[in-house]
C-alpha cells in the first residue's frame, strides 16, 4: 500500500492528474531490486508533501510506515523514516533536490 499527499501526481507522464491524497495497494509484494517510480509536480505553494509505503492499513496510524518520505520545503530537507509498532524510528535527512512548481521523479529502490 502506498499513499501520496500534497502533490500533483501522475502515474505516467501522458496520463491525467490523479487526485491526492492518493492511496493504492501494490499489485504484488515488493522484492529486492524492484523500483517504485513516483512522477508528479510540486505545487508552487507547497510547504510539505509525503510519500508513504504502508503495511497493515491505509494510514500511518494504526498501520505501519515501512518507508515515510517527507518533502519539507519549509525546512529545505527530505526526511526519511519508519513508523513501526507505534513508534517512529531514527530520521535520515537529505538536502532538498526538488523545486516548488516543477515536475519531479522520485525513485524508491
Automatic annotation (TrEMBL):
UniProt xrefs under InterPro entries: ConA-like_dom_sf (IPR013320), Galectin-like (IPR044156), Galectin_CRD (IPR001079)
Xref: SMART domains: Gal-bind_lectin, GLECT
UniProt-recorded Gene Ontology molecular function terms: carbohydrate binding; galactoside binding
Domain Galectin: 22-109
Keywords: Lectin
CDD domains, sorted: GLECT (cd00070)
PANTHER family linked: GALAPTIN LEC-8-RELATED (PTHR11346:SF174), GALECTIN (PTHR11346)
Identification of the protein by name: Galectin
Amino acid at each position: 500500500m502506498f499513499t501520496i499527499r500534497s502533490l500533483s501526481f501522475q502515474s505516467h507522464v501522458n496520463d491525467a492528474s490523479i487526485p491526492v491524497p492518493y492511496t493504492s495497494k501494490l499489485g504484488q509484494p515488493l522484492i529486492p531490486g524492484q523500483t517504485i517510480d513516483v512522477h508528479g509536480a510540486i505545487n508552487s505553494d507547497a510547504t510539505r508533501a509525503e510519500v508513504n509505503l504502508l503495511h497493515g492499513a491505509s494510514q500511518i496510524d494504526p498501520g505501519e510506515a515501512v518507508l515515510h518520505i517527507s518533502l519539507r520545503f519549509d525546512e529545505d530537507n527530505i526526511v526519511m523514516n519508519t513508523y513501526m509498532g507505534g513508534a517512529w524510528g531514527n530520521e535520515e535527512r537529505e538536502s532538498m533536490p526538488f523545486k516548488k512548481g516543477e515536475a519531479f521523479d522520485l525513485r524508491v529502490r
